[in-house]
Amino acid sequence: MNEVLLRSLTPSVLGVLVRRGADFAAAEDAAQDALVEALRVWPADPPRDPKGWLVTVAWRKFLDATRSDAARRRREDLVDVEPAPGPAPATDDTLQLYFLCAHPSLTPSSAVALTLRAVGGLTTRQIAQAYLVPEATMAQRISRAKRTVSDVRFDRPGDVANVLRVLYLVFNEGYSGDVDLAAEAIRLTRQLAAAIDHPEVAGLLALMLLHHARRAARTAPDGSLVPLAEQDRGRWDTGAIAEGVAILQAALARDRLGEFQAQAAIAALHADARTAEETDWVQIVEWYDELVRLTDSPVVRLNRAVAVGEADGPRAGLAALAALDDTLPRHTAVAAYLHERDGDPGTAARLYAEAARKAPNLAERDHLTRQAARLNDRHGL
Amino acid sequence: MAKYLLLKHYRGAPAAVNDVPMDRWTPEEISAHVQYMQDFATRLEGTGEFVDGQALAPEGTFVRYDGEGRPPVTDGPFAETKDLIAGWMVIDVDSYERALELAGELSAAPGKGGEPIHEWLEVRPFLTAPPTVTE
């Protein structure tokens, strides 16, 4: 059974139910029930018309659910006006779903969960596994999110920037479980790009493809992090890079720059370099300047300091770093790196050990501890 | 079956035998240690005894209610806290003896020179739900 195909049908099934008069929350529950049923039944008994099957089952689930509560009368009215099943324009519905699930009244974690279920067609259990929380907790998070957006009109265009933030979160903070959230984020962004013509949607898709292309090279067989400069570039996915670059170039040509296009441009410059030494750091610094202008983010300024260190030498990088708040996450790690490049292994080792204590995750902590150990070992410190 | 918490401390426990800070190991020794910990968890998943394992950042903040309509009181993080929990593993095993045996194995993770670190771990039984049969 093709689970991705099944998942890709979810938003249009949901859209059909809403057009038939079901409210969003009930329709979404029914679509989820149909999906779970399909996962159970399809492997042994695949339907000839998958979407038709899902619509029929979801509609029946919806009627079953409303039959049991006070909405019985309303349901009977709905059955009377039920339109004939058949092909329906799915694209607009899907776009509206993206806007609704990323509505600004939702917290980021709620928007992510709702998007993955209603647009992505993942089950509550899969989402719970991916974010390492109990299934009941995730189910509550999703039903609260649906209550929050229950008064939002389904037919109004929303702000695409909200949707992009949610998709970026899914891509960037996918943890574990049997679903590859990074790949899922790419699929959802690709689907969004097909539904709306917007250079930042293209920019985000390009950014995801360019980072995803490096995934195999990013970890060693023992699970430890491999920094960009040390990655085996032969293991980068050249197909994904080519696609990302092409999408980015088309977006940039429209001259409506945004932060995702600028981030993707930096990723593309790294992808262009056959070796770490060939990296065009001068151009990368220029893109960071654009990003600082677009976002004024301290994290961007920190990354810019690294790029300056490569383009103009570690002293220049340290000078750029000195202008920044030293409580910024990863500030100490960047300082350690620049001091090592500046030929001061003692300071670098001390700062790497300090950065390890402040590391936000285990992989980074282990990596930074290894950096400190490497310098202490090599220089007999 | 009974659940036990294996607690690892940054500070507060007696010093380990092979008590060299990790950044004074070689990178290979660090890799061997990380691999040992991963293999241990994987093996306990295989035997059906693993429940959960998490690592904690070294610094935390104490928080206290400060009365109606007032923001909570915070204190810390403290540079010199006597006892600091570094992380835990929860296991579900048949006996207290098995819990001790596994804690002993975890404490033998290799450190400097590839030698076991002999680190102190704290084993704490969970308080469980009351049994159905009471007579």
TrEMBL record, chain A:
<comment type="similarity">
    <text>Belongs to the sigma-70 factor family. ECF subfamily.</text>
</comment>
<dbReference type="InterPro" id="IPR013324">
    <property type="entry name" value="RNA_pol_sigma_r3/r4-like"/>
</dbReference>
<dbReference type="InterPro" id="IPR036388">
    <property type="entry name" value="WH-like_DNA-bd_sf"/>
</dbReference>
<dbReference type="InterPro" id="IPR007627">
    <property type="entry name" value="RNA_pol_sigma70_r2"/>
</dbReference>
<dbReference type="GO" id="GO:0016987">
    <property type="term" value="F:sigma factor activity"/>
</dbReference>
<dbReference type="InterPro" id="IPR046531">
    <property type="entry name" value="DUF6596"/>
</dbReference>
<feature type="domain" description="RNA polymerase sigma factor 70 region 4 type 2">
    <location>
        <begin position="98"/>
        <end position="148"/>
    </location>
</feature>
<dbReference type="GO" id="GO:0006352">
    <property type="term" value="P:DNA-templated transcription initiation"/>
</dbReference>
<dbReference type="InterPro" id="IPR013325">
    <property type="entry name" value="RNA_pol_sigma_r2"/>
</dbReference>
<keyword id="KW-0804">Transcription</keyword>
<feature type="domain" description="DUF6596">
    <location>
        <begin position="161"/>
        <end position="251"/>
    </location>
</feature>
<dbReference type="Pfam" id="PF04542">
    <property type="entry name" value="Sigma70_r2"/>
</dbReference>
<dbReference type="Pfam" id="PF08281">
    <property type="entry name" value="Sigma70_r4_2"/>
</dbReference>
<keyword id="KW-0731">Sigma factor</keyword>
<dbReference type="Pfam" id="PF20239">
    <property type="entry name" value="DUF6596"/>
</dbReference>
<feature type="domain" description="RNA polymerase sigma-70 region 2">
    <location>
        <begin position="6"/>
        <end position="69"/>
    </location>
</feature>
<dbReference type="GO" id="GO:0003677">
    <property type="term" value="F:DNA binding"/>
</dbReference>
<dbReference type="InterPro" id="IPR013249">
    <property type="entry name" value="RNA_pol_sigma70_r4_t2"/>
</dbReference>
<keyword id="KW-0805">Transcription regulation</keyword>
<protein>
    <submittedName>
        <fullName>RNA polymerase sigma factor</fullName>
    </submittedName>
</protein>
From TrEMBL, chain B:
<dbReference type="Pfam" id="PF03795">
    <property type="entry name" value="YCII"/>
</dbReference>
<dbReference type="InterPro" id="IPR005545">
    <property type="entry name" value="YCII"/>
</dbReference>
<feature type="domain" description="YCII-related">
    <location>
        <begin position="15"/>
        <end position="106"/>
    </location>
</feature>
<protein>
    <recommendedName>
        <fullName>YCII-related domain-containing protein</fullName>
    </recommendedName>
</protein>
<comment type="similarity">
    <text>Belongs to the YciI family.</text>
</comment>
<dbReference type="InterPro" id="IPR011008">
    <property type="entry name" value="Dimeric_a/b-barrel"/>
</dbReference>
